[in-house]
Sequence to fold (485 residues):
Amino acid sequence: MEPIGPTRTLQGMRDEPDSGDWAMALEGDGEAFGRVFDRHRHRVQRHCMRLVPADTDAADSVAIVFLETWRNRARVRLVDGSLLPWLLVTATNVARNQTRAARRYRAALDRLPPPEDVPDHAERDEDGDAVRALRRLGRNDQEIITLSVLEGYSEREIADALGIAPGTVKSRLSRARARLAAHLTTPVISTSAVDRNGVRS
Amino acid sequence: MSTPTNTHDRDAAVRALLVDTVAHTPRRRRRWRLPTIAGAVVCVLGGAAAGGAITAAANPDPAAIAAQNRAALVVGGAGPSYLEVVGTPVGRVGSANETITVGRAPSGADTFTWVATCRTGGDLTERRSGVIRSTASCEAGSTTSDAYPAKAIAGREIRIEADRDLDWTLSYGWLRTPPMPGASAAQEQAMDDGIVTRSEYLAAFDRFQGCMTARGESLGRIPTSSLFVSYGASDEYALDWCIASEFDAVDTAWQVEHPAPSGADEGTWGSQPYDPAADPRYAG
Fold:
């Protein structure tokens, strides 16, 4: 029997299908879930870096995303055999509730080696105005912009990932784009501290 | 900034944590069950009659007819008794290798299962997408089986590789799980800080018992002084319903943080001692 080949091409990257490994993980095969982690950790990490607030422990985010995915395994939806859309949606939600999500896994996270240094503010800002505007959107808007604009999924795939009708995707995406555009034209009010000499910390 | 080394170490540790989490997610452990098979038997009657007639027309082999006639009973009995057979399961006899071509899942089906009964002894290997999923040594008269979520297997193939002289009866088909509840607010709250204490574990079990009582199915007097509680009930649907609502996640977290002592099995489950003094982090 021939192994199943890649099922979709996205922004020049080929996603290996996860359905086999996911089914095996559900049967208790830990290594199968490890292979899912190997395939997607970089994409998940990149997305977490976009959205996790700079003052939180971003190093924990990737672990939390995969642990949350496992905790909610009964509700997971694969899109064309890929777990990546679900992971990205989970990452979006973890980024918004990082502190609460981390509490759930504190005992396990404490046993990990010390995290790498959190990149400085300048490095996190490399994503530019669009990503900064994305951080200011609500959860539903962030989910749909992430899947559509940043990751290039089709409306049908987004509908599968979010469990909503394709028509709902279209209308929700339209509103989210409008709000994103509004944020892009609205100056961000800086919250960084300014000392008496006018130097930002 | 980080070095490649500590990034690699962190990723490797996260991966190991995930592998360990999945591998040690406990299957629910119960001491006993009294399955009710009335539902499965009722399902058999219609499906077996139709399946048997079709098989008889194409193949007069009595063993093949018997295999088809029993397929719904075998498939329906492969999991908890409340699972419902969807469509007409397939039953066939053969030897050596076999490929199951799984079609689209019928409406409402969420699980696909196969059951092989070995008529002679030998080794069986199951491959999915070319990858070995399981191997089993199958003695004459014994069975081996597997189940897949519908989403993972619909439209794909399962390859059963058997010794050349191994004769088998193979049954496969679709099953539907009736609706199950999500975790209750109390169970979610117990999970919220990431640590399940002894008192939270026992309180969740108490709510689980209350849920069973409310559904007319008592668990009886269960000792709660051991490391793990052990329980059973005859109504499997009520049992799984109440576990999902009140106990599943809490029980899982407790078992993950308290690995079973070596030698623990179904027979001794519920008799391992619990020493609060040796468990200060969770004893509260």
About this structure: Chain A touches chain B through 45 residues (CB under 8 Å). Chain A has two domains: 12-121, 128-189. Residues 30-51 of chain A form the longest helix (22 residues).
